[in-house]
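Objective 1b: paired records.
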Amino acid sequence: MELVHVAGPDDRRLDDYRSLTDVALRRVREPEGGLYMAESAKVIARAVQAGHRPRSVLTQAKWVDAIEEALGDIDAPVYVASDEVSEQVTGFAIHRGPLAAMHRPVERPLAEVLDDARLVLVLEDVSDHTNVGAAFRAAAALGADAVLVSPRCADPLYRRSVRVSMGTVFQVPWTRIGEWAEAAPALHGAGFRIAALALRDDAVDLDVYAAERPDRVALLLGTEGDGLTSQALAAADSVVTIPMQGGVDSLNVASAAAVALWALTH
Protein backbone atom coordinates (compact mmCIF):
# COMPACT_ATOMS: atom_id res chain seq x y z
CA MET A 1 0.00 0.00 0.00
CA GLU A 2 1.49 3.30 -1.12
CA LEU A 3 0.77 6.15 1.32
CA VAL A 4 0.82 9.60 -0.29
CA HIS A 5 0.33 12.58 2.01
CA VAL A 6 -1.55 15.39 0.27
CA ALA A 7 -1.07 18.93 1.52
CA GLY A 8 -3.72 20.88 -0.41
CA PRO A 9 -7.04 20.46 -2.22
CA ASP A 10 -5.70 21.46 -5.64
CA ASP A 11 -3.64 18.29 -6.06
CA ARG A 12 -4.74 16.86 -9.45
CA ARG A 13 -4.32 13.32 -8.17
CA LEU A 14 -7.55 13.85 -6.21
CA ASP A 15 -9.67 14.76 -9.25
CA ASP A 16 -11.70 11.55 -8.99
CA TYR A 17 -13.05 12.75 -5.64
CA ARG A 18 -14.20 16.24 -6.58
CA SER A 19 -17.84 17.38 -6.56
CA LEU A 20 -19.26 14.11 -5.27
CA THR A 21 -22.44 15.87 -4.14
CA ASP A 22 -23.31 16.76 -7.76
CA VAL A 23 -25.53 13.85 -8.80
CA ALA A 24 -25.68 14.88 -12.46
CA LEU A 25 -21.89 15.02 -12.66
CA ARG A 26 -21.48 11.61 -11.02
CA ARG A 27 -24.00 10.01 -13.37
CA VAL A 28 -21.84 11.10 -16.26
CA ARG A 29 -18.45 10.53 -14.73
CA GLU A 30 -18.96 7.16 -13.09
CA PRO A 31 -20.31 5.07 -15.99
CA GLU A 32 -18.41 6.80 -18.77
CA GLY A 33 -15.20 7.11 -16.78
CA GLY A 34 -15.42 3.52 -15.67
CA LEU A 35 -15.40 4.41 -11.97
CA TYR A 36 -17.67 4.24 -8.97
CA MET A 37 -17.16 5.36 -5.37
CA ALA A 38 -17.00 2.99 -2.41
CA GLU A 39 -17.37 4.66 0.98
CA SER A 40 -16.13 3.24 4.33
CA ALA A 41 -13.53 0.58 5.03
CA LYS A 42 -16.18 -2.14 5.33
CA VAL A 43 -17.70 -1.38 1.92
CA ILE A 44 -14.28 -1.10 0.29
CA ALA A 45 -13.30 -4.46 1.79
CA ARG A 46 -16.43 -6.09 0.37
CA ALA A 47 -15.72 -4.60 -3.05
CA VAL A 48 -12.15 -5.93 -2.98
CA GLN A 49 -13.35 -9.35 -1.83
CA ALA A 50 -15.74 -9.38 -4.80
CA GLY A 51 -12.78 -8.86 -7.14
CA HIS A 52 -13.22 -5.14 -7.78
CA ARG A 53 -10.04 -3.12 -8.18
CA PRO A 54 -9.45 0.31 -6.62
CA ARG A 55 -7.73 2.98 -8.64
CA SER A 56 -6.94 4.96 -5.49
CA VAL A 57 -8.17 5.71 -1.97
CA LEU A 58 -8.73 9.02 -0.18
CA THR A 59 -8.56 8.81 3.60
CA GLN A 60 -7.75 10.69 6.75
CA ALA A 61 -4.88 9.52 8.94
CA LYS A 62 -7.24 8.00 11.54
CA TRP A 63 -8.45 5.41 9.00
CA VAL A 64 -5.11 4.33 7.54
CA ASP A 65 -4.99 1.07 9.53
CA ALA A 66 -8.57 0.22 8.54
CA ILE A 67 -7.93 0.80 4.86
CA GLU A 68 -4.72 -1.21 4.99
CA GLU A 69 -6.73 -4.15 6.32
CA ALA A 70 -9.46 -3.61 3.72
CA LEU A 71 -7.03 -3.54 0.78
CA GLY A 72 -4.91 -6.49 1.84
CA ASP A 73 -2.34 -7.13 -0.89
CA ILE A 74 -3.93 -4.68 -3.35
CA ASP A 75 -1.39 -2.19 -4.67
CA ALA A 76 -3.09 1.18 -5.02
CA PRO A 77 -2.12 4.72 -3.98
CA VAL A 78 -3.73 5.81 -0.71
CA TYR A 79 -3.97 9.60 -0.48
CA VAL A 80 -3.90 10.80 3.12
CA ALA A 81 -5.40 14.24 3.66
CA SER A 82 -6.62 16.31 6.58
CA ASP A 83 -10.33 16.67 7.37
CA GLU A 84 -10.25 20.19 5.93
CA VAL A 85 -8.58 19.20 2.66
CA SER A 86 -10.88 16.19 2.23
CA GLU A 87 -13.95 18.37 2.70
CA GLN A 88 -12.67 20.99 0.25
CA VAL A 89 -12.08 18.32 -2.37
CA THR A 90 -15.32 16.33 -2.00
CA GLY A 91 -17.69 19.12 -0.99
CA PHE A 92 -18.85 17.46 2.22
CA ALA A 93 -17.54 16.42 5.64
CA ILE A 94 -16.24 12.86 5.36
CA HIS A 95 -17.24 11.01 8.50
CA ARG A 96 -18.13 7.50 7.30
CA GLY A 97 -14.59 6.43 6.51
CA PRO A 98 -12.26 6.28 3.51
CA LEU A 99 -13.40 6.80 -0.09
CA ALA A 100 -12.12 4.56 -2.87
CA ALA A 101 -12.32 5.29 -6.59
CA MET A 102 -13.07 1.80 -7.90
CA HIS A 103 -12.79 0.53 -11.45
CA ARG A 104 -16.27 -0.39 -12.62
CA PRO A 105 -16.51 -4.06 -13.58
CA VAL A 106 -18.01 -5.11 -16.89
CA GLU A 107 -21.70 -5.94 -16.49
CA ARG A 108 -22.41 -9.66 -16.66
CA PRO A 109 -24.54 -11.15 -19.47
CA LEU A 110 -28.15 -11.75 -18.44
CA ALA A 111 -27.97 -15.46 -19.28
CA GLU A 112 -25.00 -15.87 -16.94
CA VAL A 113 -26.76 -14.09 -14.07
CA LEU A 114 -29.89 -16.20 -14.51
CA ASP A 115 -28.10 -19.51 -14.97
CA ASP A 116 -28.44 -20.97 -11.46
CA ALA A 117 -31.02 -18.51 -10.12
CA ARG A 118 -34.46 -19.45 -8.85
CA LEU A 119 -35.61 -16.10 -7.46
CA VAL A 120 -34.59 -12.74 -8.92
CA LEU A 121 -35.63 -9.23 -7.99
CA VAL A 122 -36.36 -6.91 -10.92
CA LEU A 123 -36.34 -3.13 -10.34
CA GLU A 124 -38.03 -1.08 -13.04
CA ASP A 125 -37.12 2.61 -13.22
CA VAL A 126 -36.50 2.99 -9.46
CA SER A 127 -34.96 6.45 -9.44
CA ASP A 128 -33.95 6.87 -5.80
CA HIS A 129 -30.44 5.59 -5.07
CA THR A 130 -31.33 4.96 -1.42
CA ASN A 131 -34.20 2.67 -2.42
CA VAL A 132 -31.99 0.79 -4.86
CA GLY A 133 -29.39 0.20 -2.17
CA ALA A 134 -32.02 -0.88 0.35
CA ALA A 135 -33.57 -3.26 -2.18
CA PHE A 136 -30.18 -4.89 -2.75
CA ARG A 137 -29.73 -5.28 0.99
CA ALA A 138 -33.13 -6.97 1.21
CA ALA A 139 -32.22 -9.21 -1.72
CA ALA A 140 -29.01 -10.30 -0.01
CA ALA A 141 -30.65 -10.82 3.38
CA LEU A 142 -33.74 -12.66 2.18
CA GLY A 143 -32.35 -15.04 -0.37
CA ALA A 144 -32.76 -13.53 -3.84
CA ASP A 145 -30.27 -15.06 -6.23
CA ALA A 146 -29.85 -11.96 -8.38
CA VAL A 147 -31.13 -8.44 -9.05
CA LEU A 148 -32.00 -7.08 -12.48
CA VAL A 149 -32.35 -3.36 -13.13
CA SER A 150 -34.13 -1.65 -16.01
CA PRO A 151 -32.42 0.80 -18.41
CA ARG A 152 -33.71 3.82 -16.47
CA CYS A 153 -33.20 2.45 -12.96
CA ALA A 154 -30.76 4.32 -10.73
CA ASP A 155 -27.19 3.04 -10.72
CA PRO A 156 -26.57 0.33 -8.07
CA LEU A 157 -22.92 1.42 -7.98
CA TYR A 158 -23.68 5.06 -7.23
CA ARG A 159 -22.04 6.02 -3.92
CA ARG A 160 -25.30 6.30 -1.95
CA SER A 161 -26.66 3.02 -3.32
CA VAL A 162 -23.47 1.21 -2.35
CA ARG A 163 -23.46 2.75 1.12
CA VAL A 164 -27.13 2.01 1.89
CA SER A 165 -26.73 -1.54 0.62
CA MET A 166 -23.84 -2.04 3.09
CA GLY A 167 -21.82 -3.37 0.18
CA THR A 168 -24.31 -6.08 -0.76
CA VAL A 169 -24.33 -4.71 -4.33
CA PHE A 170 -21.01 -6.58 -4.57
CA GLN A 171 -22.48 -9.73 -3.04
CA VAL A 172 -25.64 -10.23 -5.09
CA PRO A 173 -25.17 -10.90 -8.83
CA TRP A 174 -26.84 -8.21 -10.91
CA THR A 175 -27.02 -6.80 -14.39
CA ARG A 176 -29.00 -4.28 -16.42
CA ILE A 177 -31.75 -5.61 -18.69
CA GLY A 178 -33.08 -4.11 -21.90
CA GLU A 179 -36.60 -2.92 -22.68
CA TRP A 180 -39.48 -5.31 -22.01
CA ALA A 181 -39.78 -6.41 -25.62
CA GLU A 182 -36.33 -7.93 -25.13
CA ALA A 183 -36.26 -8.66 -21.39
CA ALA A 184 -39.54 -10.55 -21.04
CA PRO A 185 -38.71 -13.19 -23.70
CA ALA A 186 -35.27 -13.62 -22.14
CA LEU A 187 -36.77 -14.26 -18.70
CA HIS A 188 -39.44 -16.58 -20.06
CA GLY A 189 -36.86 -18.38 -22.17
CA ALA A 190 -34.85 -19.08 -19.02
CA GLY A 191 -37.92 -20.59 -17.38
CA PHE A 192 -38.93 -17.65 -15.18
CA ARG A 193 -42.48 -16.57 -14.43
CA ILE A 194 -42.78 -12.82 -13.91
CA ALA A 195 -44.71 -11.74 -10.80
CA ALA A 196 -45.48 -8.01 -10.77
CA LEU A 197 -46.24 -6.31 -7.46
CA ALA A 198 -49.06 -3.88 -8.20
CA LEU A 199 -52.49 -2.69 -7.11
CA ARG A 200 -55.01 -4.12 -9.53
CA ASP A 201 -58.45 -5.65 -9.21
CA ASP A 202 -57.28 -9.01 -10.53
CA ALA A 203 -54.17 -9.13 -8.31
CA VAL A 204 -53.50 -12.27 -6.28
CA ASP A 205 -52.68 -11.91 -2.59
CA LEU A 206 -48.99 -12.50 -1.91
CA ASP A 207 -49.59 -15.38 0.51
CA VAL A 208 -51.75 -17.17 -2.06
CA TYR A 209 -49.11 -16.74 -4.77
CA ALA A 210 -46.30 -17.81 -2.42
CA ALA A 211 -48.14 -21.01 -1.46
CA GLU A 212 -47.96 -22.25 -5.06
CA ARG A 213 -45.04 -20.26 -6.39
CA PRO A 214 -43.42 -21.35 -9.65
CA ASP A 215 -39.97 -22.89 -9.52
CA ARG A 216 -38.33 -19.79 -10.99
CA VAL A 217 -39.75 -16.37 -10.15
CA ALA A 218 -38.81 -12.90 -11.33
CA LEU A 219 -40.30 -10.53 -8.75
CA LEU A 220 -40.98 -7.20 -10.43
CA LEU A 221 -41.30 -3.85 -8.61
CA GLY A 222 -41.75 -0.39 -10.09
CA THR A 223 -40.68 3.14 -9.47
CA GLU A 224 -41.73 5.27 -6.53
CA GLY A 225 -45.06 7.00 -7.07
CA ASP A 226 -46.08 5.79 -10.53
CA GLY A 227 -45.37 2.10 -9.99
CA LEU A 228 -44.88 -0.29 -12.88
CA THR A 229 -45.24 0.78 -16.49
CA SER A 230 -47.96 -0.67 -18.70
CA GLN A 231 -45.26 -2.53 -20.65
CA ALA A 232 -44.04 -4.21 -17.46
CA LEU A 233 -47.54 -5.21 -16.44
CA ALA A 234 -48.20 -6.59 -19.90
CA ALA A 235 -45.03 -8.70 -19.64
CA ALA A 236 -46.05 -10.14 -16.25
CA ASP A 237 -47.52 -13.63 -15.88
CA SER A 238 -49.15 -12.73 -12.55
CA VAL A 239 -50.01 -9.54 -10.69
CA VAL A 240 -49.46 -9.89 -6.95
CA THR A 241 -50.38 -7.58 -4.09
CA ILE A 242 -49.38 -7.33 -0.44
CA PRO A 243 -52.54 -7.16 1.72
CA MET A 244 -52.59 -3.87 3.65
CA GLN A 245 -54.27 -2.55 6.78
CA GLY A 246 -54.75 0.85 8.37
CA GLY A 247 -55.86 2.55 5.19
CA VAL A 248 -52.40 2.20 3.62
CA ASP A 249 -52.37 1.12 -0.02
CA SER A 250 -48.64 0.60 -0.63
CA LEU A 251 -45.17 0.34 0.90
CA ASN A 252 -41.85 1.90 0.05
CA VAL A 253 -40.39 -0.12 -2.83
CA ALA A 254 -37.51 -1.54 -0.77
CA SER A 255 -39.89 -2.49 2.07
CA ALA A 256 -42.24 -4.14 -0.42
CA ALA A 257 -39.31 -6.08 -1.87
CA ALA A 258 -38.34 -7.31 1.59
CA VAL A 259 -41.89 -8.45 2.44
CA ALA A 260 -42.36 -10.22 -0.89
CA LEU A 261 -38.97 -11.89 -0.84
CA TRP A 262 -39.57 -13.17 2.69
CA ALA A 263 -42.93 -14.62 1.65
CA LEU A 264 -41.40 -16.36 -1.36
CA THR A 265 -38.52 -17.91 0.59
CA HIS A 266 -40.34 -19.09 3.73
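Objective 1b, second protein:
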Amino acid sequence: MAGTQLRAVDLHVHTIFSKFRRLRCLGARDSYNDPLLVYERCREIGCDYVAITDHDTIDGALDLLSRRPDLEPTVIIGEEVDTCFPETGQWAHVNVLGVNEAIHEDLQRARGDIRDLVSYLRSRNLVHFLNHPLQSYRLQKQPMRFVEDVLELFTHVEVRNAALPPDQNRAAAGILEHGRRMGLTRFGVGGSDAHGMRPLGAAVTVAPGDDRRAWLAAVAAGNCAVAGREIGPVELVGQAYAIVGRYYRRLGSSEAAHHATPVNYLAAAGFVPICLAGGPLLVCLLSYLGTSGLSRVVSRSLKRAELGAAMESCAAPAPPQDL
Protein backbone atom coordinates (compact mmCIF):
# COMPACT_ATOMS: atom_id res chain seq x y z
CA MET A 1 0.00 0.00 0.00
CA ALA A 2 1.23 3.41 -0.93
CA GLY A 3 0.87 6.35 1.42
CA THR A 4 1.84 7.62 4.85
CA GLN A 5 1.96 5.66 8.09
CA LEU A 6 -0.50 2.77 8.17
CA ARG A 7 -3.26 3.01 10.73
CA ALA A 8 -5.57 0.27 11.98
CA VAL A 9 -9.31 0.47 12.64
CA ASP A 10 -11.80 -2.16 13.76
CA LEU A 11 -14.63 -1.38 11.34
CA HIS A 12 -17.35 -3.55 12.92
CA VAL A 13 -18.09 -2.73 16.55
CA HIS A 14 -21.27 -2.73 18.65
CA THR A 15 -22.37 -1.00 21.85
CA ILE A 16 -25.37 -1.08 24.17
CA PHE A 17 -27.26 0.97 21.59
CA SER A 18 -27.52 -2.06 19.28
CA LYS A 19 -30.92 -3.60 19.95
CA PHE A 20 -31.59 -7.34 19.85
CA ARG A 21 -34.02 -7.91 16.96
CA ARG A 22 -35.12 -11.40 17.94
CA LEU A 23 -37.41 -12.12 20.88
CA ARG A 24 -38.26 -8.45 21.24
CA CYS A 25 -40.44 -9.29 24.21
CA LEU A 26 -37.20 -9.64 26.20
CA GLY A 27 -36.28 -6.00 25.67
CA ALA A 28 -32.67 -7.15 25.32
CA ARG A 29 -29.69 -5.54 23.64
CA ASP A 30 -27.33 -7.12 21.14
CA SER A 31 -24.42 -5.76 23.16
CA TYR A 32 -23.90 -4.19 26.56
CA ASN A 33 -20.65 -2.42 25.75
CA ASP A 34 -20.40 1.15 26.98
CA PRO A 35 -19.34 3.35 24.01
CA LEU A 36 -16.64 5.13 26.02
CA LEU A 37 -15.18 1.83 27.22
CA VAL A 38 -15.23 0.57 23.63
CA TYR A 39 -13.32 3.65 22.54
CA GLU A 40 -10.75 3.30 25.31
CA ARG A 41 -10.26 -0.41 24.66
CA CYS A 42 -9.83 0.07 20.91
CA ARG A 43 -7.23 2.75 21.46
CA GLU A 44 -5.47 0.64 24.07
CA ILE A 45 -5.03 -2.27 21.66
CA GLY A 46 -3.67 -0.07 18.88
CA CYS A 47 -6.59 1.25 16.83
CA ASP A 48 -5.75 4.74 15.58
CA TYR A 49 -9.38 5.69 14.93
CA VAL A 50 -12.49 4.15 16.47
CA ALA A 51 -15.53 3.27 14.36
CA ILE A 52 -18.80 2.53 16.14
CA THR A 53 -21.30 0.71 13.92
CA ASP A 54 -24.44 -0.13 15.87
CA HIS A 55 -27.49 -1.76 14.30
CA ASP A 56 -29.61 0.89 12.55
CA THR A 57 -28.56 3.70 14.87
CA ILE A 58 -25.74 6.16 15.42
CA ASP A 59 -26.74 6.79 19.04
CA GLY A 60 -23.72 4.90 20.39
CA ALA A 61 -21.27 7.20 18.64
CA LEU A 62 -23.34 10.28 19.52
CA ASP A 63 -23.45 9.22 23.17
CA LEU A 64 -19.67 8.88 23.19
CA LEU A 65 -19.18 12.31 21.64
CA SER A 66 -21.71 13.94 23.95
CA ARG A 67 -19.61 12.79 26.91
CA ARG A 68 -16.22 13.34 25.29
CA PRO A 69 -16.44 15.89 22.46
CA ASP A 70 -12.64 16.13 22.51
CA LEU A 71 -12.48 12.66 20.94
CA GLU A 72 -14.27 13.73 17.76
CA PRO A 73 -11.16 13.78 15.50
CA THR A 74 -10.57 10.07 16.13
CA VAL A 75 -14.17 8.81 16.07
CA ILE A 76 -15.78 7.44 12.90
CA ILE A 77 -19.56 7.52 13.15
CA GLY A 78 -20.88 4.45 11.42
CA GLU A 79 -24.01 2.35 11.21
CA GLU A 80 -24.73 -1.27 10.36
CA VAL A 81 -27.86 -1.02 8.24
CA ASP A 82 -30.27 -3.95 8.18
CA THR A 83 -31.59 -4.38 4.65
CA CYS A 84 -32.72 -7.20 2.36
CA PHE A 85 -32.98 -8.58 -1.15
CA PRO A 86 -36.76 -8.13 -1.61
CA GLU A 87 -37.06 -10.82 -4.29
CA THR A 88 -35.97 -13.53 -1.83
CA GLY A 89 -36.30 -11.91 1.59
CA GLN A 90 -32.64 -12.63 2.38
CA TRP A 91 -31.44 -10.12 4.93
CA ALA A 92 -28.11 -8.34 4.58
CA HIS A 93 -26.09 -5.95 6.70
CA VAL A 94 -24.37 -2.98 5.10
CA ASN A 95 -21.82 -0.97 7.07
CA VAL A 96 -21.85 2.76 6.32
CA LEU A 97 -19.12 5.13 7.53
CA GLY A 98 -19.19 8.89 7.92
CA VAL A 99 -22.83 9.07 8.98
CA ASN A 100 -24.59 12.08 10.51
CA GLU A 101 -28.15 12.43 11.78
CA ALA A 102 -29.58 13.53 8.42
CA ILE A 103 -27.87 10.65 6.61
CA HIS A 104 -29.09 8.23 9.27
CA GLU A 105 -32.70 9.25 8.59
CA ASP A 106 -32.16 8.75 4.86
CA LEU A 107 -30.65 5.31 5.49
CA GLN A 108 -33.68 4.21 7.47
CA ARG A 109 -35.98 5.28 4.65
CA ALA A 110 -33.92 3.48 1.98
CA ARG A 111 -33.10 0.25 3.82
CA GLY A 112 -36.17 -1.73 2.75
CA ASP A 113 -34.48 -2.68 -0.54
CA ILE A 114 -30.74 -3.26 -0.76
CA ARG A 115 -30.60 -1.81 -4.27
CA ASP A 116 -32.29 1.42 -3.19
CA LEU A 117 -29.93 1.62 -0.24
CA VAL A 118 -26.80 1.15 -2.35
CA SER A 119 -28.06 3.66 -4.92
CA TYR A 120 -28.41 6.24 -2.16
CA LEU A 121 -24.97 5.45 -0.74
CA ARG A 122 -23.36 5.85 -4.13
CA SER A 123 -25.15 9.14 -4.72
CA ARG A 124 -23.68 10.50 -1.47
CA ASN A 125 -20.21 8.98 -2.02
CA LEU A 126 -20.39 7.32 1.39
CA VAL A 127 -17.87 4.62 2.28
CA HIS A 128 -19.86 1.41 2.63
CA PHE A 129 -19.40 -2.34 2.42
CA LEU A 130 -21.32 -5.58 2.72
CA ASN A 131 -20.80 -7.23 6.09
CA HIS A 132 -20.48 -11.03 6.46
CA PRO A 133 -22.03 -11.70 3.02
CA LEU A 134 -22.74 -15.38 3.66
CA GLN A 135 -24.08 -15.27 7.23
CA SER A 136 -27.64 -14.97 5.92
CA TYR A 137 -27.17 -17.05 2.76
CA ARG A 138 -29.39 -20.14 2.80
CA LEU A 139 -29.52 -20.95 -0.94
CA GLN A 140 -32.21 -18.34 -1.54
CA LYS A 141 -30.55 -18.07 -4.97
CA GLN A 142 -28.13 -20.26 -6.86
CA PRO A 143 -24.63 -19.58 -5.46
CA MET A 144 -23.21 -17.91 -8.55
CA ARG A 145 -26.29 -15.75 -8.98
CA PHE A 146 -25.81 -14.50 -5.42
CA VAL A 147 -22.11 -13.92 -6.13
CA GLU A 148 -23.07 -11.86 -9.18
CA ASP A 149 -25.46 -9.76 -7.08
CA VAL A 150 -22.78 -9.06 -4.48
CA LEU A 151 -20.25 -8.04 -7.11
CA GLU A 152 -22.79 -5.88 -8.93
CA LEU A 153 -23.75 -3.97 -5.78
CA PHE A 154 -20.52 -3.65 -3.79
CA THR A 155 -16.96 -2.54 -4.45
CA HIS A 156 -16.03 -3.35 -0.82
CA VAL A 157 -16.90 -6.52 1.09
CA GLU A 158 -16.01 -7.66 4.61
CA VAL A 159 -13.58 -10.54 4.10
CA ARG A 160 -12.29 -10.79 7.68
CA ASN A 161 -15.03 -11.01 10.31
CA ALA A 162 -13.61 -12.23 13.62
CA ALA A 163 -16.94 -13.66 14.83
CA LEU A 164 -17.56 -15.93 11.85
CA PRO A 165 -16.04 -19.22 10.63
CA PRO A 166 -12.87 -19.17 8.52
CA ASP A 167 -14.91 -20.79 5.71
CA GLN A 168 -17.11 -17.69 5.51
CA ASN A 169 -14.14 -15.35 5.32
CA ARG A 170 -12.43 -17.50 2.69
CA ALA A 171 -15.59 -17.61 0.59
CA ALA A 172 -16.02 -13.83 0.89
CA ALA A 173 -12.44 -13.34 -0.28
CA GLY A 174 -13.14 -15.83 -3.08
CA ILE A 175 -16.09 -13.73 -4.25
CA LEU A 176 -13.82 -10.71 -4.61
CA GLU A 177 -11.16 -12.75 -6.38
CA HIS A 178 -13.81 -13.98 -8.82
CA GLY A 179 -14.74 -10.37 -9.48
CA ARG A 180 -11.14 -9.44 -10.13
CA ARG A 181 -10.83 -12.27 -12.66
CA MET A 182 -13.83 -10.69 -14.39
CA GLY A 183 -11.96 -7.38 -14.55
CA LEU A 184 -13.85 -5.74 -11.66
CA THR A 185 -12.06 -3.60 -9.09
CA ARG A 186 -13.10 -4.96 -5.70
CA PHE A 187 -11.63 -4.62 -2.20
CA GLY A 188 -11.78 -6.39 1.15
CA VAL A 189 -12.15 -4.87 4.62
CA GLY A 190 -12.25 -6.35 8.11
CA GLY A 191 -13.67 -5.91 11.60
CA SER A 192 -14.27 -7.85 14.78
CA ASP A 193 -18.09 -7.76 14.85
CA ALA A 194 -17.55 -7.51 18.61
CA HIS A 195 -20.66 -7.55 20.77
CA GLY A 196 -18.58 -7.99 23.93
CA MET A 197 -15.40 -6.24 24.99
CA ARG A 198 -12.94 -9.09 24.62
CA PRO A 199 -13.09 -9.55 20.81
CA LEU A 200 -12.53 -5.85 20.07
CA GLY A 201 -9.70 -5.46 17.57
CA ALA A 202 -9.52 -9.16 16.75
CA ALA A 203 -9.82 -8.14 13.09
CA VAL A 204 -9.00 -4.73 11.63
CA THR A 205 -8.67 -2.78 8.41
CA VAL A 206 -5.29 -1.16 7.79
CA ALA A 207 -4.84 1.92 5.58
CA PRO A 208 -2.76 5.11 5.41
CA GLY A 209 -4.21 8.39 6.61
CA ASP A 210 -2.95 11.09 8.94
CA ASP A 211 -6.50 12.03 9.88
CA ARG A 212 -9.89 10.35 9.88
CA ARG A 213 -11.01 11.75 6.52
CA ALA A 214 -7.77 10.84 4.75
CA TRP A 215 -8.01 7.32 6.20
CA LEU A 216 -11.57 6.88 4.96
CA ALA A 217 -10.54 8.19 1.54
CA ALA A 218 -7.78 5.59 1.38
CA VAL A 219 -10.26 2.82 2.21
CA ALA A 220 -12.68 4.13 -0.40
CA ALA A 221 -9.89 4.01 -2.99
CA GLY A 222 -9.03 0.44 -2.03
CA ASN A 223 -5.66 1.38 -0.56
CA CYS A 224 -6.24 -0.91 2.41
CA ALA A 225 -5.67 -4.41 3.75
CA VAL A 226 -7.09 -6.64 6.47
CA ALA A 227 -5.39 -8.21 9.47
CA GLY A 228 -6.42 -10.30 12.45
CA ARG A 229 -8.04 -13.62 13.28
CA GLU A 230 -11.33 -15.40 13.86
CA ILE A 231 -12.15 -15.82 17.55
CA GLY A 232 -13.55 -19.33 17.07
CA PRO A 233 -16.72 -21.04 18.31
CA VAL A 234 -15.65 -21.41 21.96
CA GLU A 235 -15.01 -17.70 22.43
CA LEU A 236 -18.12 -16.91 20.40
CA VAL A 237 -20.30 -18.99 22.74
CA GLY A 238 -18.59 -17.40 25.73
CA GLN A 239 -19.42 -13.97 24.35
CA ALA A 240 -23.08 -14.98 23.91
CA TYR A 241 -23.38 -16.17 27.50
CA ALA A 242 -21.62 -13.05 28.76
CA ILE A 243 -24.23 -10.93 26.97
CA VAL A 244 -27.03 -13.03 28.49
CA GLY A 245 -25.50 -12.53 31.94
CA ARG A 246 -25.26 -8.79 31.46
CA TYR A 247 -28.88 -8.73 30.30
CA TYR A 248 -30.10 -10.30 33.54
CA ARG A 249 -27.85 -8.13 35.70
CA ARG A 250 -29.15 -5.02 33.97
CA LEU A 251 -32.74 -6.23 34.31
CA GLY A 252 -32.22 -6.36 38.06
CA SER A 253 -30.75 -2.86 38.27
CA SER A 254 -32.52 0.34 39.22
CA GLU A 255 -32.04 1.57 35.63
CA ALA A 256 -34.32 -1.18 34.34
CA ALA A 257 -37.24 0.19 36.34
CA HIS A 258 -37.42 3.13 33.93
CA HIS A 259 -37.38 1.02 30.75
CA ALA A 260 -38.46 -2.58 31.36
CA THR A 261 -42.12 -3.57 31.10
CA PRO A 262 -44.02 -6.40 32.82
CA VAL A 263 -43.86 -8.27 29.51
CA ASN A 264 -40.05 -7.99 29.57
CA TYR A 265 -39.88 -9.47 33.07
CA LEU A 266 -42.24 -12.31 32.18
CA ALA A 267 -40.28 -13.10 29.02
CA ALA A 268 -37.00 -12.97 30.94
CA ALA A 269 -38.35 -15.45 33.48
CA GLY A 270 -39.48 -17.78 30.71
CA PHE A 271 -36.07 -17.52 29.02
CA VAL A 272 -34.17 -18.75 32.10
CA PRO A 273 -34.84 -22.49 31.57
CA ILE A 274 -33.96 -22.10 27.88
CA CYS A 275 -30.59 -20.65 28.87
CA LEU A 276 -30.00 -23.36 31.46
CA ALA A 277 -30.85 -26.01 28.87
CA GLY A 278 -28.15 -24.64 26.54
CA GLY A 279 -30.31 -22.62 24.16
CA PRO A 280 -27.69 -19.92 23.41
CA LEU A 281 -25.04 -22.63 22.94
CA LEU A 282 -27.23 -24.49 20.46
CA VAL A 283 -28.14 -21.35 18.50
CA CYS A 284 -24.49 -20.24 18.27
CA LEU A 285 -23.25 -23.62 17.12
CA LEU A 286 -26.04 -24.17 14.57
CA SER A 287 -25.47 -20.71 13.10
CA TYR A 288 -21.70 -21.23 13.05
CA LEU A 289 -21.91 -24.65 11.40
CA GLY A 290 -24.64 -23.61 8.98
CA THR A 291 -22.70 -20.55 7.84
CA SER A 292 -19.55 -22.64 7.49
CA GLY A 293 -21.26 -25.34 5.44
CA LEU A 294 -23.01 -22.98 3.05
CA SER A 295 -19.82 -20.94 2.67
CA ARG A 296 -18.11 -24.11 1.46
CA VAL A 297 -20.94 -24.59 -1.06
CA VAL A 298 -20.25 -21.09 -2.43
CA SER A 299 -16.49 -21.74 -2.49
CA ARG A 300 -17.01 -24.92 -4.53
CA SER A 301 -19.20 -23.02 -6.97
CA LEU A 302 -16.49 -20.40 -7.35
CA LYS A 303 -13.92 -23.13 -8.00
CA ARG A 304 -16.14 -24.70 -10.66
CA ALA A 305 -16.63 -21.31 -12.30
CA GLU A 306 -12.88 -20.74 -12.32
CA LEU A 307 -12.25 -24.19 -13.79
CA GLY A 308 -14.94 -23.68 -16.42
CA ALA A 309 -13.43 -20.36 -17.47
CA ALA A 310 -9.97 -21.95 -17.71
CA MET A 311 -11.29 -24.79 -19.87
CA GLU A 312 -13.07 -22.37 -22.18
CA SER A 313 -9.87 -20.38 -22.52
CA CYS A 314 -7.92 -23.53 -23.44
CA ALA A 315 -10.58 -24.65 -25.93
CA ALA A 316 -10.78 -21.31 -27.71
CA PRO A 317 -9.27 -21.45 -31.21
CA ALA A 318 -5.95 -19.74 -31.63
CA PRO A 319 -6.04 -16.50 -33.62
CA PRO A 320 -4.88 -16.86 -37.24
CA GLN A 321 -1.18 -16.22 -37.81
CA ASP A 322 0.04 -13.86 -40.51
CA LEU A 323 2.05 -15.67 -43.18
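The chain has ten helices and nine strands. The chain has a mean pLDDT of 94.
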